[in-house]
Automatic annotation (TrEMBL):
<dbReference type="GO" id="GO:0016020">
    <property type="term" value="C:membrane"/>
</dbReference>
<dbReference type="Pfam" id="PF25975">
    <property type="entry name" value="CzcB_C"/>
</dbReference>
<feature type="region of interest" description="Disordered">
    <location>
        <begin position="26"/>
        <end position="63"/>
    </location>
</feature>
<dbReference type="GO" id="GO:0015679">
    <property type="term" value="P:plasma membrane copper ion transport"/>
</dbReference>
<comment type="similarity">
    <text>Belongs to the membrane fusion protein (MFP) (TC 8.A.1) family.</text>
</comment>
<dbReference type="InterPro" id="IPR006143">
    <property type="entry name" value="RND_pump_MFP"/>
</dbReference>
<dbReference type="InterPro" id="IPR058649">
    <property type="entry name" value="CzcB_C"/>
</dbReference>
<keyword id="KW-0813">Transport</keyword>
<feature type="compositionally biased region" description="Basic and acidic residues">
    <location>
        <begin position="34"/>
        <end position="63"/>
    </location>
</feature>
<dbReference type="InterPro" id="IPR051909">
    <property type="entry name" value="MFP_Cation_Efflux"/>
</dbReference>
<feature type="domain" description="CzcB-like C-terminal circularly permuted SH3-like">
    <location>
        <begin position="328"/>
        <end position="388"/>
    </location>
</feature>
<dbReference type="GO" id="GO:0030313">
    <property type="term" value="C:cell envelope"/>
</dbReference>
<dbReference type="GO" id="GO:0022857">
    <property type="term" value="F:transmembrane transporter activity"/>
</dbReference>
<protein>
    <submittedName>
        <fullName>Putative solvent efflux pump periplasmic linker, SrpA-like</fullName>
    </submittedName>
</protein>
<dbReference type="GO" id="GO:0060003">
    <property type="term" value="P:copper ion export"/>
</dbReference>
Amino acid sequence: MKIYIFIILAAATSISLISCDSKQSDTRSASSTEVHRNDDGHDHRESDGDNHSEIENSGKGHEDEIIFTRQQAEAIGLEIYNVVPGSFVQVIRTSGQIQAAQGDEETIVATTNGVVSFPGQNIIEGATVGVGSTIVTISAKNLYEGDPVAKAKIAYETALKEYQRAEGLVKDKIISAKEFEQTRMKYENARTAYEAQAANVTVSGVKVTSPISGYVKNRLVSQGEYVTVGQPVATISKNRRLQLRADVSENYFNELKKIRGANFMVSYNNKVYRLEDLHGRLLSFGKAAAESSFYIPITFEFDNIGDFIPGSYVEVYLLTTPQNNVFSIPVTALTEEQGIYFVYLQIAEEEFVKREVGIGESDGKNVRILSGLKEGERVVVKGAYQVKLASSSSVLPEGHSH
């Protein structure tokens, strides 16, 4: 009986082992089949796997390229700047004001008492006037105190008669030489006063004219207003030379002696001007801060080329000590995104890349580059914004081939 039980157990064990071996064989076969099926999707050639890796690596090299065609570049006048080390001056950035130069303005004053009238509608601020142009006419007709011109004429004629009479008396020694001299002086004063007004007397009153050519900067009186002798009625400016006054913080007092020039930008056209190009020169700088502020004035003078409005406020870049062997590029090359600055580099005729840069001081035209650029790289300085727009639609995908 025991023998039969042993035979049955041995048979069961053999069947189990045969079944297990069969499953393992099936599993190996299925696995092998699956591997080959997957490989068939890639042509399952060992060398092809290497090529695919190379393509991927090549794609990473072109990951940030921007396509901007030659036709697009010509349409916008694209300009490229080659990065080279050079000189760049340190800058003190501040604000200032354009003013008329001393000696380029004349204040026109009333030469007699009376009521003002303007000749037509031409004497307004900004109007052009020439030498001898009538600015205002002053009339004293119908005034209680009388017409000063008429009074001056009467005084002159009276003094003339007394002088002529005194000439005969002094010859006959009826009056002394001293008395005659007093009479003569009285006559000369009356004549001078009358002639000063008589030369400009018209039917309408006394003309007040401009001694210089220029334009009306300020009209200080109104039509029909009463004025007195010496009262300003208008300001005439030649506007040939202008002054730039900048206010510098007292913290830069020790740097003022190093200032050699300046650039400035006006708000109404956002253009940067160099005093050097306008025959500008440094006139003076203050030796102390103003009583009501902590700023020291510094004044330049320059030619007016017609682009400037006296009295307007400007942004000023004071140029001090030069720095050598540094990188700088035109400010037009910069684009900004959330406080971070970028430039666009040309790496091929129609291919560009975006590069982050660290910037330093700016003189309004150029900016110092602290990091991000190397010598010999080609930076877009005109058309950077258009290249930036093109980057949103022309970035080449990974793994592309030319």
